[in-house]
Design brief:
disordered N terminus; globular; 15% strand; alpha/beta; five-stranded parallel sheet
Protein backbone atom coordinates (compact mmCIF):
# COMPACT_ATOMS: atom_id res chain seq x y z
CA UNK A 1 0.00 0.00 0.00
CA UNK A 2 2.85 2.36 0.87
CA UNK A 3 4.61 1.48 -2.40
CA UNK A 4 1.46 2.17 -4.45
CA UNK A 5 1.10 5.57 -2.79
CA UNK A 6 4.73 6.42 -3.57
CA UNK A 7 4.33 5.41 -7.22
CA UNK A 8 1.18 7.49 -7.53
CA UNK A 9 2.93 10.53 -6.04
CA UNK A 10 5.85 10.11 -8.44
CA UNK A 11 3.42 9.90 -11.36
CA UNK A 12 1.61 13.04 -10.21
CA UNK A 13 4.89 14.95 -10.25
CA UNK A 14 6.21 13.39 -13.46
CA UNK A 15 7.07 16.00 -16.11
CA UNK A 16 7.74 15.48 -19.81
CA UNK A 17 9.75 18.37 -21.23
CA UNK A 18 10.22 19.26 -24.91
CA UNK A 19 13.60 20.96 -25.37
CA UNK A 20 13.64 23.16 -28.49
CA UNK A 21 16.65 24.62 -30.37
CA UNK A 22 18.79 21.88 -28.87
CA UNK A 23 22.22 21.15 -30.25
CA UNK A 24 24.50 18.25 -29.31
CA UNK A 25 26.10 20.30 -26.53
CA UNK A 26 22.68 21.20 -25.08
CA UNK A 27 21.60 17.58 -25.02
CA UNK A 28 24.86 16.51 -23.39
CA UNK A 29 24.88 19.15 -20.64
CA UNK A 30 21.15 18.89 -19.85
CA UNK A 31 21.21 15.09 -19.79
CA UNK A 32 24.30 15.05 -17.59
CA UNK A 33 22.81 17.68 -15.26
CA UNK A 34 19.39 16.05 -14.93
CA UNK A 35 19.49 14.69 -11.39
CA UNK A 36 15.71 14.81 -11.07
CA UNK A 37 13.89 11.51 -11.51
CA UNK A 38 10.60 13.33 -12.16
CA UNK A 39 11.88 15.18 -15.27
CA UNK A 40 12.03 13.43 -18.66
CA UNK A 41 13.75 15.41 -21.42
CA UNK A 42 12.99 15.08 -25.14
CA UNK A 43 15.20 17.04 -27.54
CA UNK A 44 14.17 18.81 -30.74
CA UNK A 45 16.74 20.53 -32.93
CA UNK A 46 14.04 22.67 -34.54
CA UNK A 47 13.13 26.08 -33.14
CA UNK A 48 9.77 26.67 -31.54
CA UNK A 49 7.44 28.57 -33.86
CA UNK A 50 3.88 28.49 -35.17
CA UNK A 51 5.03 25.75 -37.57
CA UNK A 52 6.57 23.52 -34.89
CA UNK A 53 4.35 24.15 -31.86
CA UNK A 54 2.39 20.97 -32.67
CA UNK A 55 5.43 19.02 -31.43
CA UNK A 56 4.49 20.01 -27.87
CA UNK A 57 1.44 17.75 -27.84
CA UNK A 58 1.72 15.30 -24.96
CA UNK A 59 4.28 17.35 -23.05
CA UNK A 60 3.91 19.15 -19.73
CA UNK A 61 6.59 21.83 -20.19
CA UNK A 62 9.05 23.17 -22.74
CA UNK A 63 12.54 24.62 -22.70
CA UNK A 64 13.52 27.30 -25.23
CA UNK A 65 16.45 29.46 -26.30
CA UNK A 66 17.02 33.00 -27.62
CA UNK A 67 15.60 32.63 -31.15
CA UNK A 68 12.51 30.57 -30.38
CA UNK A 69 9.29 32.42 -31.19
CA UNK A 70 7.03 32.50 -28.15
CA UNK A 71 4.43 35.03 -29.27
CA UNK A 72 0.70 35.17 -28.63
CA UNK A 73 -0.38 32.60 -31.22
CA UNK A 74 2.31 30.13 -30.12
CA UNK A 75 1.45 30.63 -26.45
CA UNK A 76 -2.24 30.07 -27.11
CA UNK A 77 -1.46 26.81 -28.86
CA UNK A 78 0.92 25.81 -26.06
CA UNK A 79 -1.89 26.37 -23.57
CA UNK A 80 -4.28 24.24 -25.62
CA UNK A 81 -1.65 21.50 -25.67
CA UNK A 82 -1.45 21.56 -21.88
CA UNK A 83 1.90 23.28 -21.47
CA UNK A 84 2.12 24.82 -18.01
CA UNK A 85 5.73 25.93 -17.85
CA UNK A 86 8.42 27.45 -20.12
CA UNK A 87 12.04 27.23 -18.99
CA UNK A 88 14.22 29.61 -20.97
CA UNK A 89 17.88 28.67 -21.27
CA UNK A 90 18.97 32.33 -21.39
CA UNK A 91 18.80 35.55 -19.42
CA UNK A 92 16.89 37.63 -21.98
CA UNK A 93 13.17 37.11 -22.53
CA UNK A 94 12.27 39.64 -25.24
CA UNK A 95 11.11 36.76 -27.47
CA UNK A 96 8.32 35.85 -25.01
CA UNK A 97 4.99 37.68 -24.70
CA UNK A 98 4.92 37.62 -20.91
CA UNK A 99 1.52 39.34 -20.66
CA UNK A 100 -0.13 36.62 -22.72
CA UNK A 101 1.72 33.87 -20.84
CA UNK A 102 0.53 35.35 -17.57
CA UNK A 103 -3.10 35.47 -18.74
CA UNK A 104 -2.90 31.86 -19.89
CA UNK A 105 -1.45 30.71 -16.58
CA UNK A 106 1.87 29.60 -18.09
CA UNK A 107 4.87 30.00 -15.80
CA UNK A 108 7.96 31.40 -17.53
CA UNK A 109 11.42 31.04 -15.99
CA UNK A 110 14.80 32.33 -17.14
CA UNK A 111 18.49 31.95 -16.27
CA UNK A 112 19.51 35.39 -15.01
CA UNK A 113 23.02 34.44 -13.97
CA UNK A 114 24.75 31.66 -15.88
CA UNK A 115 28.25 33.11 -16.20
CA UNK A 116 28.42 36.88 -16.62
CA UNK A 117 32.17 36.64 -17.17
CA UNK A 118 31.73 34.48 -20.29
CA UNK A 119 29.88 37.22 -22.19
CA UNK A 120 31.98 40.03 -20.72
CA UNK A 121 35.20 38.28 -21.72
CA UNK A 122 33.87 37.74 -25.25
CA UNK A 123 33.14 41.47 -25.52
CA UNK A 124 36.78 42.09 -24.57
CA UNK A 125 37.89 39.50 -27.15
CA UNK A 126 36.03 41.47 -29.83
CA UNK A 127 37.68 44.71 -28.64
CA UNK A 128 41.15 43.18 -28.75
CA UNK A 129 40.58 41.54 -32.13
CA UNK A 130 39.34 44.77 -33.72
CA UNK A 131 42.02 46.90 -32.09
CA UNK A 132 45.09 44.73 -32.75
CA UNK A 133 43.63 43.19 -35.93
CA UNK A 134 44.59 39.68 -34.92
CA UNK A 135 42.04 38.20 -37.35
CA UNK A 136 43.86 39.83 -40.27
CA UNK A 137 47.35 39.14 -38.91
CA UNK A 138 46.51 35.45 -38.51
CA UNK A 139 45.67 35.04 -42.20
CA UNK A 140 48.70 37.09 -43.30
CA UNK A 141 51.15 34.95 -41.37
CA UNK A 142 49.51 31.75 -42.65
CA UNK A 143 50.33 33.02 -46.16
CA UNK A 144 53.89 33.96 -45.24
CA UNK A 145 53.12 37.68 -45.16
CA UNK A 146 54.79 39.30 -42.18
CA UNK A 147 54.15 42.91 -43.12
CA UNK A 148 52.75 45.09 -40.35
CA UNK A 149 51.24 47.66 -42.73
CA UNK A 150 47.60 48.29 -41.82
CA UNK A 151 47.78 46.45 -38.51
CA UNK A 152 48.44 49.37 -36.17
CA UNK A 153 46.32 49.39 -33.03
CA UNK A 154 46.10 51.62 -29.96
CA UNK A 155 46.78 51.28 -26.25
CA UNK A 156 43.65 50.57 -24.24
CA UNK A 157 45.19 52.17 -21.17
CA UNK A 158 43.73 55.64 -20.53
CA UNK A 159 41.01 55.22 -23.19
CA UNK A 160 37.42 55.99 -22.20
CA UNK A 161 35.07 53.02 -22.33
CA UNK A 162 31.30 53.45 -22.17
CA UNK A 163 29.31 50.60 -20.64
CA UNK A 164 25.57 50.77 -21.36
CA UNK A 165 23.87 48.57 -18.79
CA UNK A 166 25.58 47.49 -15.57
CA UNK A 167 23.78 44.34 -14.57
CA UNK A 168 25.81 41.19 -13.93
CA UNK A 169 27.45 41.12 -17.38
CA UNK A 170 27.98 44.87 -17.56
CA UNK A 171 29.59 44.83 -14.13
CA UNK A 172 31.94 42.01 -15.13
CA UNK A 173 32.87 43.89 -18.31
CA UNK A 174 33.48 47.20 -16.51
CA UNK A 175 35.76 45.47 -13.98
CA UNK A 176 37.87 43.99 -16.78
CA UNK A 177 38.20 47.33 -18.55
CA UNK A 178 39.25 49.02 -15.31
CA UNK A 179 41.96 46.36 -15.11
CA UNK A 180 43.22 47.54 -18.50
CA UNK A 181 43.60 51.01 -17.03
CA UNK A 182 40.61 52.48 -18.84
CA UNK A 183 38.38 55.28 -17.69
CA UNK A 184 34.95 53.63 -17.49
CA UNK A 185 31.71 55.56 -17.94
CA UNK A 186 28.47 53.74 -17.12
CA UNK A 187 24.79 54.35 -17.65
CA UNK A 188 21.93 52.41 -16.07
CA UNK A 189 18.60 53.17 -14.44
CA UNK A 190 20.07 51.69 -11.24
CA UNK A 191 23.71 52.60 -10.51
CA UNK A 192 25.93 49.77 -9.25
CA UNK A 193 27.67 50.74 -6.01
CA UNK A 194 30.39 48.11 -6.54
CA UNK A 195 31.41 49.82 -9.78
CA UNK A 196 31.26 53.28 -8.20
CA UNK A 197 33.59 52.07 -5.46
CA UNK A 198 35.88 50.71 -8.19
CA UNK A 199 36.14 54.16 -9.75
CA UNK A 200 33.59 53.90 -12.54
CA UNK A 201 31.54 57.00 -13.21
CA UNK A 202 27.79 57.05 -13.93
CA UNK A 203 26.71 59.55 -16.58
CA UNK A 204 23.77 60.12 -18.89
CA UNK A 205 23.72 58.58 -22.37
CA UNK A 206 24.54 61.88 -24.05
CA UNK A 207 27.76 62.24 -22.05
CA UNK A 208 28.68 58.60 -22.60
CA UNK A 209 28.22 58.98 -26.37
CA UNK A 210 30.26 62.18 -26.50
CA UNK A 211 33.26 60.96 -24.49
CA UNK A 212 33.67 57.22 -25.12
CA UNK A 213 36.30 55.77 -27.44
CA UNK A 214 34.67 52.36 -27.05
CA UNK A 215 30.98 51.70 -26.35
CA UNK A 216 29.84 48.25 -25.23
CA UNK A 217 26.17 47.26 -24.94
CA UNK A 218 25.05 45.18 -21.97
CA UNK A 219 21.40 46.17 -21.61
CA UNK A 220 18.22 44.17 -22.29
CA UNK A 221 16.12 44.69 -25.42
CA UNK A 222 13.00 46.73 -24.63
CA UNK A 223 10.86 49.24 -26.50
CA UNK A 224 13.13 51.97 -25.14
CA UNK A 225 16.40 50.29 -26.16
CA UNK A 226 15.31 49.00 -29.57
CA UNK A 227 17.75 50.50 -32.14
CA UNK A 228 19.52 52.37 -29.35
CA UNK A 229 22.45 52.63 -31.75
CA UNK A 230 21.05 54.57 -34.68
CA UNK A 231 21.88 57.50 -36.94
CA UNK A 232 21.06 60.10 -34.27
CA UNK A 233 22.97 58.46 -31.43
CA UNK A 234 25.97 57.70 -33.67
CA UNK A 235 26.20 61.37 -34.68
CA UNK A 236 26.81 62.26 -31.01
CA UNK A 237 29.78 59.89 -30.74
CA UNK A 238 33.48 60.49 -31.23
CA UNK A 239 34.84 60.02 -34.74
CA UNK A 240 36.19 56.50 -35.16
CA UNK A 241 34.28 55.10 -32.17
CA UNK A 242 34.34 51.36 -31.51
CA UNK A 243 30.93 49.77 -30.89
CA UNK A 244 30.56 46.32 -29.33
CA UNK A 245 27.29 44.42 -28.98
CA UNK A 246 27.09 41.10 -27.14
CA UNK A 247 23.57 41.67 -25.81
CA UNK A 248 20.67 41.62 -28.29
CA UNK A 249 20.86 42.26 -32.03
CA UNK A 250 18.05 44.80 -32.26
CA UNK A 251 19.93 47.23 -30.03
CA UNK A 252 21.82 48.20 -33.19
CA UNK A 253 20.24 49.48 -36.40
CA UNK A 254 22.49 47.52 -38.75
CA UNK A 255 21.84 49.59 -41.87
CA UNK A 256 22.54 52.89 -40.09
CA UNK A 257 25.67 51.37 -38.54
CA UNK A 258 26.84 50.44 -42.06
CA UNK A 259 26.25 54.01 -43.21
CA UNK A 260 28.44 55.20 -40.32
CA UNK A 261 31.13 52.68 -41.29
CA UNK A 262 31.20 54.18 -44.78
CA UNK A 263 31.57 57.71 -43.36
CA UNK A 264 34.17 56.39 -40.86
CA UNK A 265 32.17 57.78 -37.94
CA UNK A 266 32.25 54.20 -36.66
CA UNK A 267 35.85 53.04 -36.79
CA UNK A 268 35.28 49.52 -35.48
CA UNK A 269 32.19 47.33 -35.10
CA UNK A 270 32.12 44.07 -33.14
CA UNK A 271 28.89 42.07 -33.06
CA UNK A 272 28.07 38.77 -31.42
CA UNK A 273 24.36 39.32 -32.08
CA UNK A 274 22.37 40.54 -35.07
CA UNK A 275 18.76 41.68 -35.39
CA UNK A 276 17.89 39.09 -38.06
CA UNK A 277 20.08 36.35 -36.58
CA UNK A 278 17.14 33.98 -36.16
CA UNK A 279 17.49 32.86 -39.78
CA UNK A 280 21.26 32.42 -39.53
CA UNK A 281 22.91 31.82 -36.18
CA UNK A 282 23.53 28.40 -34.61
CA UNK A 283 23.32 26.75 -38.05
CA UNK A 284 25.96 25.77 -40.62
CA UNK A 285 25.17 28.08 -43.54
CA UNK A 286 28.52 27.61 -45.29
CA UNK A 287 27.01 25.75 -48.23
CA UNK A 288 24.19 28.20 -48.89
CA UNK A 289 23.78 31.72 -50.20
CA UNK A 290 22.76 33.89 -47.26
CA UNK A 291 19.66 35.83 -48.24
CA UNK A 292 20.42 38.92 -46.18
CA UNK A 293 22.08 41.73 -48.12
CA UNK A 294 22.62 43.91 -45.02
CA UNK A 295 24.44 41.13 -43.18
CA UNK A 296 26.47 40.19 -46.24
CA UNK A 297 27.49 43.82 -46.80
CA UNK A 298 28.55 44.19 -43.18
CA UNK A 299 30.96 41.26 -43.53
CA UNK A 300 32.85 43.01 -46.35
CA UNK A 301 34.28 45.69 -44.02
CA UNK A 302 37.79 44.99 -42.72
CA UNK A 303 36.98 46.78 -39.46
CA UNK A 304 33.94 44.63 -38.65
CA UNK A 305 34.08 41.37 -36.69
CA UNK A 306 30.95 39.24 -36.33
CA UNK A 307 30.62 36.09 -34.24
CA UNK A 308 27.55 33.86 -34.14
CA UNK A 309 26.11 34.49 -30.66
CA UNK A 310 28.91 32.60 -28.94
CA UNK A 311 29.50 35.01 -26.07
CA UNK A 312 27.79 32.67 -23.61
CA UNK A 313 29.47 29.58 -25.03
CA UNK A 314 31.86 28.34 -22.34
CA UNK A 315 31.86 25.08 -20.39
CA UNK A 316 31.13 26.97 -17.17
CA UNK A 317 28.16 28.83 -18.66
CA UNK A 318 26.61 25.74 -20.28
CA UNK A 319 26.85 23.85 -17.02
CA UNK A 320 25.19 26.68 -15.10
CA UNK A 321 22.46 27.03 -17.74
CA UNK A 322 21.65 23.32 -17.54
CA UNK A 323 21.63 23.32 -13.73
CA UNK A 324 19.38 26.40 -13.44
CA UNK A 325 17.01 25.32 -16.22
CA UNK A 326 16.45 21.92 -14.62
CA UNK A 327 16.08 23.48 -11.19
CA UNK A 328 13.48 25.89 -12.58
CA UNK A 329 11.49 22.97 -14.02
CA UNK A 330 11.78 21.06 -10.75
CA UNK A 331 10.59 24.07 -8.74
CA UNK A 332 7.58 24.49 -11.01
CA UNK A 333 6.77 20.80 -10.84
CA UNK A 334 6.76 20.86 -7.04
CA UNK A 335 5.18 24.32 -6.77
CA UNK A 336 8.22 25.80 -5.06
CA UNK A 337 8.65 29.61 -5.14
CA UNK A 338 11.39 30.97 -7.40
CA UNK A 339 12.78 34.45 -7.99
CA UNK A 340 13.60 33.33 -11.54
CA UNK A 341 9.93 33.15 -12.51
CA UNK A 342 8.94 36.00 -14.85
CA UNK A 343 5.16 35.57 -14.65
CA UNK A 344 2.94 35.99 -11.60
CA UNK A 345 1.06 32.71 -11.74
CA UNK A 346 2.07 29.69 -9.67
Amino acid sequence: MIENTRNRQQKDFYMKVAVFSSKTYDEQTLTKGNVYSDIELHFFESRLSAETVSLTTGFDAISCFVNDQINQSVLEQLSKNGIKSIALRCAGYNNVDLNVANKLGISVYHVPDYSPESVAEHAVALIMTLNRKTHRAYHRVKEGNFSLEGLMGFNLSDKTVGCIGTGRIGQAFAKIMKGFGCRVLCTDIKPNQTLIDLGCQYVDLQTLYEQSNIISLHCPLTEETNHLINKNSIEKMLDGVMIINTSRGALVNAQEAIDALYSEKIGYLGLDVYEQEGALFFEDMSGTIIQDSVFQLMLTFPNVVVTGHQGYFTDTALSHIAHTTLENLHHHNHKKPSNRMLTHNH
